[in-house]
Amino acid sequence: MNVQRTMDSLKRGGFEVRYFESAKAAADYLDESIRGKSVGIGGSMTIEQMGLYERLTEHNTVYWHWRTNDFATRTAAAGAEVYLSSVNGLAETGEIVNIDGSGNRVAATLYNHERVVFVVGVNKIAEDYERAMHRARNIAAPLNTRRLGLKTPCAVGEEIRCYNCASKDRICCGVVTLLWPMRSVKVTEVVLVGESLGY
Ligand code: SF4
Fold first, then answer.
1. Are the CB atoms for 112 and 81 separated by under 8 Å?
2. Which residue owns the Cα nearest ligand 1 atom 8?
3. Structural domains counted in the chain
4. CATH number of the domain that 24 lies in?
5. Ligand 1 centroid – CA 66 distance (Å)
6. Ligand 1 center to residue 5 CA distance, Å?
7. How far apart (Å, rounded) are the C-alpha atoms in residues 150 and 72?
C-alpha cells in the first residue's frame, strides 16, 4: 500500500490528513486536540483498540452506543460537535468507503459537525476505489459479522468473502463513499496510523 499517495490524494480533495507511526501517538494527538467538546463515536474496533472512549471521556462529553447500546446515544452522537469513525476501505485515489447496517455511523459522518475524524490503520488502504469497495464488502463486513456472531454465510462459511446474502442478519445495507469533504462539516480529517487496526 502507498501511504504517501493516499495522503496526497486526500489532501487534494481538501481533507486534513495526519500520519502517525503508532496507535499510541495517534491517540495522544486526538486526546490533546479534542477538549471540552461533545463527541460522538461510530461503531469501530479501531476506536476500541485505541482506548479513545476512555481517554476522551476524561475531558469531553462522549456519546458511544457501544457503551450504552441505546438509540438516544446514537442520536446524541449524530448531533455532537466532533464525530469519530474509522473506515472500511480507503482508496489511494482518495475515496473513503464505509458500509453499514443500521446507518447511524455512516449518516453521522456526513452532516453538520465541527469536525469529523476518520481514524484509519494502514490495513484499510486499497490501491483504488474498486479495491477499497471490494475490501469493505469482502473483508470488513465478513469480519464484523464474525465478531458479532451472526448467522450470515460470510460469518459461518470457511471462506472470508461476501456471499451477497438475503439473511435477516445482513449488515451490508448501505455504502457511503466520501469523495470530498462535506460542506456542512467544517473540518474533515483523516488520521492515518502505521499499524493494522480494526477490520
Ligand atoms: S451481504 Fe451478507 S454475506 Fe455479504 S458481507 Fe454482508 S452480511 Fe455477509
1. no
2. 154
3. 1
4. 3.40.50.10420
5. 22
6. 30
7. 24
